[in-house]
Design a protein that fits this description.
Length: 315
């Protein structure tokens, strides 16, 4: 979840995408994108065992930015006119939505869990809608508010807040990161002019990468750390960069192009489910309360977005 917000991407794409056989193939690819995003949280946990947070975040995005810029150059070409027109917007959005969000995620994951982090980030579409309503000075729909409350209740169940546990400091950081991501999404819609989702993703990621790299060089020793990092740390960073960022983005865009943004956005609910399954694969089997919390949170997200049968959120 580090490229332009998948739940609010426009219904067209700007670059060739892999072929898919009708809606069925596009459905599979968009589901895989959500699964890949869900794996990022466990990959972050593994990377942080041997890498400090700023170094891990910067390493991920150095690779991801290089890959997405190469994809842009090969499929669409670099438009300097688009960059000049949106230079200040890209700079602000890159710092807020890429550097800010990922700094909060990697720092927060030092004390949070992958499942909790995925659930908090899973509510980002609702956070975006609520913030958008506040900025537009209009009341959000009743279903949006109720859905947000139910989703937060599900997050609380997952972290064990009703059995004596407390939100970790990392959970709060990740929540702040979710707000930064919501501001990024709103900013992309309001500030960026005449640019495709791929261009916006590539340029804001490049800016965010520069900010993360500067912070890592100032606060840590990333080059020396990566030189002595074990294979699992390298594999985790490469996975997050190429599979959990670039490939997931391309697959998601296939879904939007062939199935539409509304039908595709429902698949975003697979992100916390994927995080739950991956955590179990790595030996941390969730308890019944965590599973229930994930189910409740997803129900709240579906309710707020009007995706439940027979219910439609009011505008």
């Amino acid at each position: 979840m580090s490229l332009s917000n998948p739940t609010h991407a426009p219904a067209h794409i700007s670059a060739p995408v892999p072929a898919a056989r009708g809606d069925g193939g596009a459905l599979v690819l968009s589901a895989l994108a959500a699964v890949f995003w869900g794996t990022n949280f466990e990959a972050t946990r593994l990377a942080l065992i041997d890498l400090p947070p700023w170094t891990a975040a910067a390493g991920r995005f150095v690779l991801a930015a290089a890959a997405i810029m190469l994809w842009l150059a090969l499929t669409k070409g670099i438009s300097w006119r688009v960059l000049r027109r949106n230079l200040f917007a890209y700079a602000a959005l890159g710092v807020i939505g890429v550097a800010g969000f990922n700094a909060a995620l990697f720092l927060g994951m030092e004390t949070s869990s992958p499942v909790t982090a995925a659930l908090i980030m899973g509510t980002s579409p609702l956070t975006t809608n609520l913030l958008d309503s506040i900025l537009l000075r209009r009341l959000p729909s009743l279903l949006a508010v109720v859905g947000m409350v139910i989703s937060l209740f599900g997050v609380a169940l997952t972290v064990g807040a009703f059995s004596g546990a407390h939100f970790a400091s990392g959970d709060i950081l990740i929540l702040l990161g979710s707000i930064a991501w919501a501001l990024y999404t709103i900013g992309c819609r309001r500030w960026v002019r005449d640019a495709t989702p791929l261009e916006t993703s590539a340029w804001t990621m490049l800016v965010g990468t520069l900010a993360l790299a500067l912070a890592a060089l100032r606060l840590e020793t990333p080059i020396a750390t990566f030189a002595h990092a074990p294979a699992i740390a390298w594999a985790s960073v490469v996975w997050m960069a190429l599979v959990g960022s670039v490939l997931a983005y391309i697959f998601w865009q296939v879904g939007i192009a062939r199935r539409g943004p509304g039908a595709t956005s429902v698949m975003f609910n697979l992100v916390p489910v994927s995080a739950l399954v991956v955590a179990a694969i790595f030996g941390r089997t969730p308890d019944a309360m965590q599973v229930a919390g994930v189910a409740v949170a997803i129900f709240g997200i579906l309710l707020a977005s009007g995706k439940l049968p027979g219910l439609h959120a009011r505008s």
